[in-house]
C-alpha cells in the first residue's frame, strides 16, 4: 500500500464520527461549558441566585451577592483558561509522541516548570510576573527534552511506556528537589507549598494579565499543528513521504504545548491529569482527527478544571479543596485504567 493510500485509509477510519455528529457534540460541549461557568459563579461560601449572577456579569455589584459574584469572575475565567490550556497541551503531546499516556504531569513537564520557578524564587529572588512565566516555560522545555532523551535510550527508542516511566521518575526526583530547595527557606515555604498543590483561588485580573499573551501564542501554535499531527500519526517515514517536515512539525507543536504548560503552571501551580483524561474522552466523541480533537480537548479541559474547582468548594465547606487535589482524585484512577487497558507490548 502506498503512503497516499494509507493516508486516505487513515482519514477514512478517523472519520467514523460524521461532521453532523461532531457539530452536535460541539454545541453540547459549549452548552455544558456555559452551564459549568455559571455554576462556578453561583457556588461558593455564599451561594448566589442566577438572577444576581447575570446582574453581576453586566456590572451591577450593588448587593452583597452580586459583589461576591464579581470576585468569582476572575477565578472562573482562570479555571476555564488553565483547563483549556492543559487539555489542549495533553492532546498535542499525545499526538507528538504517539503516546496514550502522555500528559504534562505524567511526563514531568509541570513539575519541571515548578522546580524552575521555585529555584528562581529561592535562589535568585525573582518576583516579576513576566519573569515567573519565562522561567516556568524554560523549566518546562528543559524537562520535556530531558524526559524525551532519557526515554529514547536503549532498544526500541522512545516507546510510550519508557516515556511514561522516565517522566514519572523525573517527577518524583524533581518533587524531592523542590522540597530540598524550599525547606531551608521558611520565609517562602508557606506560599510555595500552597502554590505547589495547584489551584485557581485568589485569582485577579491583574495577576492574570501577564499570562494572556503566552497562552494566546501557545493556543495558536497548537491549533495550527492539527494537520501536521494527523500526518505524524502515520509514522515519521510516511509523514515525510507526504511532504511533511517531521522535525519542524514536531518542534512547533511541542513548543506550543510547552508554552501552555509553563504559563499555566506559573499562574496556577502544577495541575495534573487534565491533559490525560480529556483527550481520551474527546476521541470518543469526535474521533482521532486532530482538526476536531484539539478544539474539543481545549473545551473539555476548561469544563473539567472548572467542574473540579466547583466540586472542591462543595466537598469541604466552608473551606475548599484545591483544584489540583480534585483533578488528581479523578485522573489517577483513569491513568490506571489506561495502563491496564493497553497491552504491555503495545506500550
Would you kindly provide a written description of the structure presented here, covering whatever features stand out?
Mean pLDDT is 87; it is low at 1-15. The chain has one domain: ABC transporter involved in vitamin B12 uptake, BtuC (Orthogonal Bundle). The protein has 16 helices and no strands. The protein has 347 residues and is an all-alpha fold. The two termini are 25 Å apart. The longest helix has 34 residues, at 64-97. It is a multi-pass membrane protein. Belongs to the binding-protein-dependent transport system permease family. FecCD subfamily.
Topology of helices and strands:
Blueprint: H1 3-14, H2 19-42, H3 50-57, H4 64-97, H5 109-124, H6 129-152, H7 160-182, H8 186-197, H9 205-208, H10 212-224, H11 226-232, H12 236-241, H13 246-268, H14 274-286, H15 290-315, H16 323-341
Helix pairs in contact: 2-4, 2-15, 3-4, 4-10, 4-13, 4-14, 4-15, 5-6, 5-7, 5-13, 6-7, 6-13, 10-13, 11-15, 14-15, 15-16
Quickly give the structural class: mainly alpha
Total discrete domains? 1
Total number of strands: 0
- Label the overall shape: globular
User: What is the CATH-assigned architecture?
Assistant: Orthogonal Bundle
- How would you state the average pLDDT, rounded? 87
**H/E series, N to C?**
HHHHHHHHHHHHHHHH
Largest sheet: none
Overall CATH class: Mainly Alpha
Give unreliable regions as ranges: 1-15
Task: Please work out how many helical segments DSSP would assign.
Answer: 16
Determine the strand fraction and express it as a percent band. Answer: under 5%
Distance between the termini: 25 Å
In helices, the fraction of residues equals over 70%
Query: Considering the protein shown, what is the CATH homologous superfamily?
Result: ABC transporter involved in vitamin B12 uptake, BtuC
Subcellular location: Cell membrane
InterPro entries: ABC_BtuC-like, ABC_transptr_permease_BtuC
Transmembrane segments: 23-43, 73-93, 105-126, 132-151, 163-183, 210-226, 247-272, 292-311, 323-340
Keywords: Cell membrane, Membrane, Transmembrane, Transmembrane helix, Transport
Amino acid at each position: 500500500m502506498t503512503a497516499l493510500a494509507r493516508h486516505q485509509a487513515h482519514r477514512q477510519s478517523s472519520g467514523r464520527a460524521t461532521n453532523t455528529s461532531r457539530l452536535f457534540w460541539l454545541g453540547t460541549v459549549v452548552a455544558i461549558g456555559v452551564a459549568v461557568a455559571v455554576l462556578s459563579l453561583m457556588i461558593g461560601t455564599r451561594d448566589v441566585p442566577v438572577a444576581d449572577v447575570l446582574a453581576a456579569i453586566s456590572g451591577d455589584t450593588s448587593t452583597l451577592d452580586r459583589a461576591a459574584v464579581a470576585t468569582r469572575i476572575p477565578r472562573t475565567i482562570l479555571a476555564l483558561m488553565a483547563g483549556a490550556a492543559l487539555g489542549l497541551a495533553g492532546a498535542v503531546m499525545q499526538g507528538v509522541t504517539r503516546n496514550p499516556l502522555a500528559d504534562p504531569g505524567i511526563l514531568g513537564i509541570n513539575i519541571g516548570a515548578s522546580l524552575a520557578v521555585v529555584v528562581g524564587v529561592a535562589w535568585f529572588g525573582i518576583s516579576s510576573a513576566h519573569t515567573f512565566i519565562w522561567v516556568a516555560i524554560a523549566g518546562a522545555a528543559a524537562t520535556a527534552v530531558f524526559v524525551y532523551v532519557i526515554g529514547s535510550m536503549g532498544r526500541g527508542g522512545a516507546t510510550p511506556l519508557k516515556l511514561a516511566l522516565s517522566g514519572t521518575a523525573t517527577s518524583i526526583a524533581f518533587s524531592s528537589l523542590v522540597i530540598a530547595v524550599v525547606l531551608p527557606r521558611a520565609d517562602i515555604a508557606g506560599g510555595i507549598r500552597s502554590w505547589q498543590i495547584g489551584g485557581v483561588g485568589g485569582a485577579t485580573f491583574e495577576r492574570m494579565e501577564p499570562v494572556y499573551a503566552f497562552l494566546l501564542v501557545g493556543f495558536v501554535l497548537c491549533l495550527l499543528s492539527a494537520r501536521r499531527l494527523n500526518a505524524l500519526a502515520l509514522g515519521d517515514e510516511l509523514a515525510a513521504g507526504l511532504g511533511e517536515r517531521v522535525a519542524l512539525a514536531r518542534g512547533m507543536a511541542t513548543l506550543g504545548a510547552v508554552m501552555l504548560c509553563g504559563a499555566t503552571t506559573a499562574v496556577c501551580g502544577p495541575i495534573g491529569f487534565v491533559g490525560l483524561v480529556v483527550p481520551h474522552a474527546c476521541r470518543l466523541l469526535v474521533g482521532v482527527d486532530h482538526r476536531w480533537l484539539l478544539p474539543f480537548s481545549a473545551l473539555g479541559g476548561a469544563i473539567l478544571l472548572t467542574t473540579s474547582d466547583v466540586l472542591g468548594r462543595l466537598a469541604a465547606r466552608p473551606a475548599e479543596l484545591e483544584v489540583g487535589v480534585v483533578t488528581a482524585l479523578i485522573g489517577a484512577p483513569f491513568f490506571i485504567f489506561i495502563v491496564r487497558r493497553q497491552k504491555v507490548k503495545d506500550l
